[in-house]
């Protein structure tokens, strides 16, 4: 019984938050200017607009019995710097981030970009559980790596 208990490892989730500021314009090259204005309204403004985004990254996995951690927070902070802060903070998403050259810079697509960028820099991407991006206090997108 104690041998079985020793093998059982609790699963925990750990979330780290970063804040970034970026501007963008919601505009699809696949739509006419009129369709873009109709769908995206004021967010299609030719000069764009900005947000102070809050990005929450959650890792989930077994708690290591030696370290007491799911993932080292210093490591997660570093991965978020590489995948979130460096490429996105104080940037024009549409002009400075190659991913958005042909992808509309909605918060949905931004959240997916963060997920995929983190997977590339994390040595243990299987720990990535959820990315949540607050565009505003009222508009929040969650991505957990699911594709249809």
Automatic annotation (TrEMBL):
Keywords: Lyase, Metal-binding, Tetrahydrobiopterin biosynthesis, Zinc. The keyword Zinc applies. GO terms for biological process: tetrahydrobiopterin biosynthetic process. GO terms for cellular component: mitochondrion. Gene3D superfamilies: 6-pyruvoyl tetrahydropterin synthase/QueD. Pathway: Cofactor biosynthesis; tetrahydrobiopterin biosynthesis; tetrahydrobiopterin from 7,8-dihydroneopterin triphosphate: step 1/3. Its EC number is 4.2.3.12. One of its GO terms (molecular function) is metal ion binding. Its cofactor is Zn(2+). It comes from the Eukaryota. Belongs to the PTPS family. This is 6-pyruvoyl tetrahydrobiopterin synthase.
